[in-house]
Design brief:
Two copies of one chain form a homodimer.
Chain A lengths: L27 E12 L2 E8 L9 E2 L2 E3 L7 H13 L5 E10 L8 E9 L16 E7 L2 E2 L7 H15 L14 E2 H12 L5 H11 L2 E4 L13 E4 L13
Parallel strand pairs in A: 1-6
Antiparallel strand pairs in A: 1-2, 1-4, 2-3, 2-7, 5-6, 7-8, 9-11, 10-11
Chain A binds a DNA duplex (27 and 27 nucleotides) through helix 4.
Amino acid sequence: MAKTPLAKPSFPRSGRRVASRPPASHPLLTIAIVTLTLREDGLGTLLIRRDETPYAGRWALPRGVIRPDDMSLAGAARRLLAQAVGVEASHIEQLETFGDTKHDPRGWAVTVAYMALLPADRLGAVRMHAPDKASWWPVVGTSVAPNLAFDHAHILTAAIARLRARAGYTSLPIHLLPQKFTLPDLQRVHEQLLGRSLDKSAFRKRITGLEFLEPVVGERRPASNRPAQLWRAKADHRTVFFDRLL
Amino acid sequence: MAKTPLAKPSFPRSGRRVASRPPASHPLLTIAIVTLTLREDGLGTLLIRRDETPYAGRWALPRGVIRPDDMSLAGAARRLLAQAVGVEASHIEQLETFGDTKHDPRGWAVTVAYMALLPADRLGAVRMHAPDKASWWPVVGTSVAPNLAFDHAHILTAAIARLRARAGYTSLPIHLLPQKFTLPDLQRVHEQLLGRSLDKSAFRKRITGLEFLEPVVGERRPASNRPAQLWRAKADHRTVFFDRLL
DNA sequence: CAAATAGTGTCTTTAAGACAGTATAGT
DNA sequence: ACTATACTGTCTTAAAGACACTATTTG
């Protein structure tokens, strides 16, 4: 859907890009956020249909510039995500900073990329008022169907790779789940991200042995089978690093 | 030595820092490089004595701004390190990008930090012509003796933490050694960084089992004992991640 | 009680840790 | 031969993987 071919930037330039900038020029410093979530069918990412001039009509990551009143880079990223789609991520972390001399027709851009994780149950909160403005796209392999603006395809790939790798040695994937979840839920998340199935017994021994989760007394969304125990991250939770790969 | 107390910035400002900048202002984008090496006595880092106005007289990381002709951010970092001390690191990687509203008196700075590793045998190549301009400082614990300019103490701490952590699960520490080295050498590097001793037999099984090193036929710097086999990274070497912590 | 999924127990397998023992150089 | 460090082998130990078995719910 809406695979707009490359929209040629139409604003005035006087020849070479870099030459058109002031002599002691700074690069344009932007922040871009890769928001990832996990639905039944796999990873999804949040994209925005651009209506402004560079790459107008193309899909892009939510982005913007830092403002003097932002408390920090991470704060700016949170603000930009909230501004774009009215959503607060359960986790946000800096990914990498990309220098890019090619993809921004205004010349010379440096992008601090952030990765945000959003639990599937909060997807409804995403502001989809203008339905073709923000949209979830399924991640296929290591990228996404539309031809993204700027160097965002590259950034998206880096974020996906990071999350997949982290699923093998950290507790990061809990941020793709609601606050309370079952161990089978968590195992499914890791399996989805790693692309292979894990042994139930070994997985439980590992996860519970790390003692960053605690059981909640209330039981589980009923099914015609034994209900599963609900767990949640302990109050002081920070991402736990495993001493072995899963 | 040379613990200059905070040199008050002396150039003109009209009241609040941020207010003195143009309204649609960009932050100042800088690159800073943490160069780490390993001597007998432990980790060392390369610092520059500033002679320019913000924090003049204070020690700081080699730093500078990106130029339009830099090929990439990493390229800019390599250029800045070479410019500052005439040295090429055996490894350079992006660390993290720090937003900083407090420490740069010119207002509002964003610093892309890089970590560079330099083998001890190439330390002589560092341009020490102006001997109090660039100097190696021993890392004590997680920081360094002098009171660094800007937010560089923070950046340095992050780099040290990263290198120490990586010593536990990657082959990164080989970049602190000459191209050819022995397994006892490598074990000592890991032990230094991890701060504990490792079992010789287990270490060798792990490292050789990963097959990123190959033996060199020529033997070792002689001592009054059995000489050790020299090894080097295979031609296609990229940092190897272990599947377990050391 | 049948179906379905949750959760546990046990045996096997793998790899690390401890550490003794052998190898090879210089003096 | 002695010393010092390199390197290997073997036994022990810890934890993961495989997989069978038990538990608990609904219909």
